[in-house]
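Hi support team,

I've been running sequence recovery on a batch of backbones for a student project. Most finish fine, but this one hangs at about 90% for roughly twenty minutes before it completes. I'm not sure whether the input is malformed or the queue is just slow. I've pasted the structure tokens below so you can try to reproduce it. Let me know if you need the job ID as well.

Thanks,
M.K.
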């Protein structure tokens, strides 16, 4: 059974620490991997793919050294391995044009402004991962403990698999 990863791409180590802390309740089911730049994220994505796993969610900062987060998410959208990955932009600095580009070209699923409320971040991530597993997975029971139970139960009833 392949793992479904959460990847966090952020150039500020203290922000990464806060994200990991805020998402700790999910880590037992969804391993969290960190990257400090778009280049590191590309390597991480390649490793996860080579190991036969999936990426359910990418949380990505916009302004980073090198390529920005929106460019990375547009690349992910064009790659068959990551096109269905849920994409969340976490930033305090994206302007309207950047955000429109992210929505239109990267199929951005959510935008979270910094600073965020920890409970809200966790709920958004749970919601996005629930959508991902319902769409991409056949065996849904293993996700019941950490994701939206009602939606997973409904998916089990309508799809007919556990």
């Amino acid at each position: 059974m392949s793992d479904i990863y959460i990847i966090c791409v952020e150039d500020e180590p203290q922000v990464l620490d806060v994200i990991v802390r805020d998402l700790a309740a999910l880590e037992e089911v969804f391993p969290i991997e960190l990257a400090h730049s778009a280049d590191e994220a590309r390597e991480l994505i390649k490793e996860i793919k080579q190991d036969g796993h999936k990426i359910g969610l990418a949380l990505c900062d916009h302004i980073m050294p090198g390529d920005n987060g929106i460019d990375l998410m547009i690349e992910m959208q064009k790659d068959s391995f990551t096109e269905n990955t849920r994409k969340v932009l976490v930033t305090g600095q994206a302007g309207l044009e950047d955000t429109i580009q992210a929505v239109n070209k990267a199929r951005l699923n959510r935008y979270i402004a910094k600073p965020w409320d920890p409970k809200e971040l966790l709920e958004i991530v749970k919601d996005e991962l629930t959508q991902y597993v319902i769409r991409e997975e056949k065996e849904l029971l293993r996700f019941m403990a950490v994701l939206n139970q009602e939606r997973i139960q409904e998916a089990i009833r309508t799809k007919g698999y556990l």
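--
Follow-up from support: It reproduced on our side and the slowdown came from queue contention, not your input. The first strand starts at residue 4 and ends at 9. No action needed from you.
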